[in-house]
Each structure stands twice: as C-alpha cells, then as structure tokens.
Amino acid sequence: MLLLDRLPERPGTGVCVVRTVDALGRVVATDIPATESLPAFPRSTMDGYSVRASDTFGASDGLPAWFTLVGEVPMGRGPEVSLGVGEAAAAYTGGMLAGNADAVVMVEYTQTIDDRTIEVMRPVAPGENVAQPGEDVRAHETVLSVGHVVRPQDIGGLLALGMESVEVARRPRVGILSMGDEVIPPSSTPGPGQVRDVNTYTVAGQVTAAGGTAVPLGLVGDDYEEQLVAARRGLARSDMLVLSAGSSVSARDRTVDIVAELGEPGPLVHGLALRPGKPAIVGLCDGKPVIGLPGNPVSAMVVSSLLVRPAVYRLMGCVHPPPPTDRAAILAQDIPSVPGREDYVPVRLADNGNGAVNAHPVWGKSGFIFTLVRADGLVKVPADAGGIYAGEPVQVREL
Questions:
Q1: Which pLDDT tens digit goes with each residue over 42-52?
Q2: Domain closes at, from 146, 169, 192
Q3: Nearest CA to 366 among 273, 274, 299, 306?
C-alpha cells in the first residue's frame, strides 16, 4: 500500500519492556536470541528403559535380548546409575537417561521376567526415542524476529528459556476525531436530523484489536477552523490520526483540505475503487498516517479494517500482520457488482445441513450499523469480477 511503503519497518512508536506473560499480541521490537539450548540434556521421549543401543542389536520376538535392571532415573533428577553391558534402567517421558545410555526402548517392546530382569523384543538405534540437547532450539539462535506478533506458544517458548520479560513496540496512539453537525454523543437524545456517534467507538474497537491504543478526540461540527484546530491537536497527541467526516459532500471535501494542512506530504490518495468506502482519504503528515473515513458506519468499518488496521501494525514495526480470519462458505444468493471496483458485502453464516456453511448476504445501506451487527463477516467481490453467483465458493472475512 502506498502509505505503508512510506512508514519505517522498525517500530516507529518506541520500545518498552513488558512481562513475558503479558506480551500476548504485542509486536517484538528486537530480534530475540535463545539464551540457552533446549533440551539442556538428553531426554527420553517415551516411557521405557534406558539402554546402550548396541546391546539390543539382533533382538526379536523369537530371540529377545535379556537385560538386568539396575535402577531408574526419577523425574526431575539426574542419573545416579550408569549402565554396563546388558544393563537397563527405567526411564520416563521427559526425564534423563541413565549414565552411558544412548537410547530408550519403549515399554511396549519389553516384557518383565522378574523384578531384576526384562526382555527386549526389538532393537533400537543410537539416539532412538531420545530428544538430544539443542534439538528444540540452540543457544544464540534467533527465536523471535523483530516485527513478530507474540502468540501463546511464543510466550511458552520464552518462558522455557527463562526469559521473563521481552522488548516490544509501544502501542501506537491512534486519535479518532468524528466530525459533522449532525453527530452527537451516544448519551444524548437525537433531535431532528441528528445521529449518535458510532464511528468513534467501532474504529476504537478495531484499533484496540490490532494492538493500538485508541484516543477518542471528541466531536466537532462542520466549522472548518474548529475542525482544523481539533485535528492538529489530535495529531500532536497521537502517532496516527483517523478523521471520521460528516455525511455531507462539503464536509468530506474540507477533510481533504484539513489533511493538506496537517503536514507534508499531506493527502496521498483521495477516493478508492471500493464499495462501501469510495470517498476515503489516505494521508501522511510529517511522518504520521492520517486516514479519512466516510461518515457512514458500514463504510467506516470496512475502510478502517483495510487501512487503519495494517497501519497500526506497521507503526509497531510489523511488516506482515496476522491475516484476518477467513472462513470458507458457499454463497446462498447472487451478489451483483460493477467491474473496476472491489465490493465488500456483509454476510450471515449458517450451516446448510450438508457439512458446509452458506453465506447469506445481508443487504442494507452503508449508513445502517445493524447491517454489520446482523452479519458474521464480509465477502469481497474482486475488482475484475462482475459479481458472484449463488452456489460459488467464497472466503468470508470474519468480523
């Protein structure tokens, strides 16, 4: 995207240190090397017996090898026994091997003769059923790279290395300013021609889900000077600014002027081959992204998911953000479109009873927020398609 290409690939919001247990969803700020090797010692991967592999060569069901039990290696302790020729020691999954052992025989391939003797019915190779030191990760190997979004398994891996804190990108502050004479706070009762502010809070939710910190900047009417003052103040407080314009053409036009006055280079794009969301604005003002959203709630959410979300990740140094969750479905009704633009159509998902899922379009105007409330996701109609026919497979971007 034109905007992302102009943003740095390293965190542009600064770096902070957080507890590893609190790092879920945060973006790694520097390459993280392993502080030690894992496993740190040879570990059994099965319940069975530590043996010297060469003592099992030739063993079979018809001619088993006999071993003398000389003890065990309890879990969480080092070995206190060493093996000689024809000797074995009990081993447990995750535990250490006896001294001189180089393999583990699975208990399923043994038979107990008495409390001092077992039979081994299959040979094992050196290293069989043993996790070797460094086989999982080697000391100094990069385990997480800069820009990586921390997942639950990453937390487990870092803690396995004893790393109780991690350097991550600071959460970008995203200022959200809603504009328009007709927009009032949700706590107010609308008068004639007025609507409650929706976009501040839906966009704030998307920013939070992407790992940013939403900074609601309040409401401002269609007075240009007031809008400009509020936008400048908001941009100064934020790493990124989102402007939700009023629904009138004049208000949208003035939003472009505002972006042009906020800093260089100003607007990069005004208008997208997209429905809903055609009048969107993409800008960069003195190194900070500025996104102008249409006033209609559906349009604002669609554009925000396409533009604001990836910009939030890039500000944290994440070049490849986690892809949105897609779900395969069968379209239940034709979706008409016009070649040359991308259409995003809300759909409701329902099991069709045959082991598949149907996607039912939820028709509604872009000003109707409950079009999205009733939907489970969005179906994209590509710009080079004239629509999608019922019965065709589609990918649904879950909301």
A1: 999 999 999 99
A2: 169
A3: 299
